[in-house]
Amino acid sequence: MSMPSKTLFWLLFMISFVSLLSEPCCYAASDKDMIIEVCKNTTYPDFCIGTLRSDPRSVGADKKGLVQIITDKALTKGKENFALVKKLLGRATDQKDKGPLTICFQRYDLVVNRNVIDVINELNKNNFFSASIMSSASVDDIQDCVDALAGAGLKSPLTSQNKYVQDLCNLSVDILFTLIPK
Ligand SMILES: *[C@@H]1O[C@H](CO)[C@@H](O)[C@H](O)[C@H]1NC(C)=O
Ligand SMILES: *[C@@H]1O[C@H](CO)[C@@H](O)[C@H](O)[C@H]1NC(C)=O
């Protein structure tokens, strides 16, 4: 390399190095703004912000990506709840407990094996309205479980877990509505 091109090389190297260093700062700042902007339009902005900020995948994600993250969380948590329902049902001896838990079993089967899978597929096809319908279906299906437990006066660790998945699904519906073409 001749002297001028060597200097140029180092100059370019330094510029890219410095811009590389400054990237984390600026990406992070705009991502925070993005999350706040998106969450402003939802029913529970604090829940929205907390849910998305706690997930490293939200860095650099667009609105659709944020819905995918929330849906993925709903699937993970939904599967945990389904497992809990199966465990509680396996232990239940009283018909008074078995009835409502059987309803919860059937509904969670729909949530994790149909609804959430449909949401993911519809999202991938950019069918935001259909995705919102299936996400709402999860909220309703879990509500059947909530009502069955309450009707039987059954105190269960499921109660708060149910609400968490419903909150995630309702949050995804809020964001999906802003993605539906007007
Ligand atoms: C929030 O809602 C307003 C009013 O409907 C809309 O103009 C804006 O684009 C929305 N912002 C986001 C990030 O969805
Ligand atoms: C979910 O959203 C619907 C529609 O806004 C609302 O009626 C329902 O109470 C919400 N569910 C929960 C568990 O917050």
Automatic annotation (TrEMBL):
Domain Pectinesterase inhibitor residues, every copy: 30-175
Molecular function GO labels: pectinesterase inhibitor activity
Keywords of the record: Disulfide bond, Signal
Domain of life, source organism: Eukaryota
Signal sequence segment: 1-28
UniProt KW Protease keyword: no
Pfam name, any one: PMEI
Gene3D superfamilies, A to Z: Invertase/pectin methylesterase inhibitor family protein
Coiled-coil stretches: none
PANTHER family registered for this protein in UniProt: PECTINESTERASE INHIBITOR 5-RELATED, PECTINESTERASE INHIBITOR-LIKE
Record family assignment: Belongs to the PMEI family.
Descriptive protein name: OLC1v1030046C1
Native organism: Oldenlandia corymbosa var. corymbosa
Organism phylogeny: Eukaryota, Viridiplantae, Streptophyta, Embryophyta, Tracheophyta
